[in-house]
Design a protein that fits this description.
- The structure is a single chain.
- The protein is mainly α.
- The chain has four domains: about 270 residues, no CATH class; about 90 residues, no CATH class; about 70 residues, no CATH class; about 50 residues, no CATH class.
- About 70% of the residues lie in helices and about 5% in strands.
- It has 21 helices and six strands.
- The strands form two sheets. The protein has a three-stranded antiparallel sheet with strand order 1-2-3, with helices on both faces. Strands 4-5-6 form a three-stranded antiparallel sheet.
- Helix 3 crosses helix 11, helix 10 packs antiparallel against helix 11 and helix 14 crosses helix 17.
- It is globular and about 85 Å long.
- It starts with a helix and ends with a helix.
């Protein structure tokens, strides 16, 4: 007896309903939201801890290692020290024991050796928390892509003084080295004098240097949370989920090191100007979405739906991965990501051009809700378009009784719409279904824009006192394109795939 494909598919769907999979897309979205919000909220409470201090320091250390191989050097926590080493170590020792200030024993039992970068950063971070400072803190990195003439002159002057004070060298050796350094110094001073006459050579004088700090928002925790939630929410075996997390999270970490190194080079070349800001805040958001989607889809192809025979050795499994039928899905995943980049770039640019129009509409709708529904006495509102492709635009509201208007940047908030539309456009589903999903998803995202403005403006004072959860929600908001795309195409792209994978083994009788 044989079972037809249609009958088998119907039986599979019935079995899934009986097993509780009545709406797998809804189940995925609910688990995804719960995991992401929980993950990000927990991290907001971990920011002010030594554990997070060490994570940021490790990230800065690894980024410095990469930058040292790109430019002339990268200095971690290399700025002037405000306190002697024994003073800092005494405070660190006291804080480690839960004391508010060091005792006399703390000063006696510490080393006078120069502070390590970790000790410098740990002291600054803990001191800032003890003082209740609200400024964003992070390990400091000074990246020198190319030293300027002024720095080279200073370095040579220091070398000359070191040679003069060196008691291990003979007088002839000192004279030889000093003569060599003075010759180089004289040449640099001539070059420096010529460069000073030409304003276009100012970077030659100052060099290509970019100091930056790695704050909590630079840690890629949001991206890791998105990937972690997408893996955990997907209906598959626990061991396959664990494998996805174990491999995927480190990949996110290494990509973040590449991102920080790339931005440091751009910052050095662009002196932290508009191109650095543009790449930092906008381009990398799209890159992260591409990367998360690519790794997640690869995990589904190579782990979730991988065909592994019982008793298969590691070498046989590895050989199977490099078979043509296995590499084809990987190629399809890469093509999908390339399509996304090709579609999303012009859509985002077009969307930014329309920011003044869309921003004005948001102001009118959210302002009406605030005024007529919530009773906020709004007198006026509008949008100020500025920056490259309007990316520095801000919306503002004038509220009766407030001396200053309420203003907020808008470009980053609303840029999550084009990535969602791009993902739907490149997904292989019928055009009518594609259009319907695009309209529904866009409506949800636009509603999210309106609600975000209304809630933040209406409860701004309350949210300031409870910053952890609102910040987690803001970061979660950036995941909406990815989450909505999966929710919209889950049945066609993933549930159907799962049924088809199982059906060949069950078609025989």
């Amino acid at each position: 007896m044989s079972i037809s494909k249609n009958e088998h598919t119907n039986n599979e769907i019935s079995n899934r309903k009986e097993a509780g999979y009545k709406n797998p897309a809804l189940q995925f979205v609910l688990i995804f939201i719960i995991v992401v919000v929980s993950f990000l909220t927990a991290y907001r409470y971990l920011i002010q801890t030594t554990l997070n201090d060490y994570y940021l320091y490790t990230l800065a250390k690894n980024t410095s290692w990469v930058l040292n191989r790109i430019g002339e050097k990268a200095i971690l926590e290399g700025l002037p020290k405000s306190l002697p080493p024994q003073e800092c170590r005494a405070w660190l020792s006291a804080w480690a024991r839960g004391l508010e200030q060091p005792t006399s024993d703390d000063y006696l039992n510490v080393s006078k050796e120069p502070l390590t970068p970790w000790e410098q950063w740990s002291y600054r971070a803990q001191k800032s928390r003890k003082q209740g400072a609200q400024t964003k803190m992070g390990p400091r990195v000074v990246f020198i892509l190319r030293e300027g003439l002024l720095q080279k002159i200073t370095n040579l002057e220091v070398k000359i003084k070191e040679v003069q004070n060196n008691n291990t060298l003979s007088e002839p050796e000192k004279a030889s080295l000093i003569a060599k350094y003075n010759e180089e110094l004289q040449s640099l001073r001539v070059e420096y004098a010529e460069a000073q006459k030409n304003p276009e050579e100012s970077r030659k004088v100052s060099g290509y240097i970019f100091p930056f700090i790695i704050i909590s928002e630079c840690g890629a925790i949001e991206i890791m949370a998105i990937f972690f939630a997408a893996v955990i929410a997907y209906p598959t075996l626990l061991r396959k989920k664990l494998l996805g997390v174990i491999v995927g999270i480190p990949l996110m970490y290494f990509v973040n090191i590449f991102r920080l190194s790339f931005l440091a080079v751009v910052g050095a070349l662009n002196a932290g100007g508009k191109w650095f800001e543009f790449l930092h805040y906008y381009v990398w958001q799209a890159v992260y979405i591409v990367f998360v989607v690519a790794v997640w889809l690869a995990w589904i192809e190579f782990v979730v739906y991988a065909e592994a025979k019982e008793g298969m050795t590691f070498r046989e499994r590895l050989r199977q991965i490099f078979q043509r039928k296995t590499l084809l899905p990987l190629l399809q995943t890469l093509v999908f990501c390339m399509k996304f980049i090709i579609v999303v770039v012009p859509l985002v640019c077009l969307w930014w051009v329309l920011i003044p129009v869309y921003g004005w509409i948001l102001v009118q709708i959210s302002g009406s809700i605030l005024r007529f529904v919530m009773g906020v006495p709004i007198v006026a509102g509008g949008i100020r378009a500025s920056g490259f492709l309007n990316t520095s635009s801000t919306i503002y509201f004038v509220i009766q009784g407030y001396e200053f208007e309420k203003a907020s940047p808008i470009a980053l908030l609303i840029t999550n719409l084009p990535p969602f539309i791009s993902l739907i456009l490149i997904t292989r589903i019928p055009w009518f279904s594609r259009l319907k999903k695009m309209l529904w998803g866009s409506g949800i995202i636009i509603l999210g824009h309106i609600l975000f403005i209304v809630i933040v403006l209406r409860y701004q004072e309350i949210l300031k006192a409870y910053s952890e959860l609102p910040m987690a929600v803001i970061q979660f908001y950036l995941t909406m394109p990815f989450m909505l795309w999966i929710a919209m195409v889950f049945r066609e792209q993933f549930l159907k795939r799962s049924i088809e994978i199982k059906s060949p083994a069950q078609n025989k009788s």
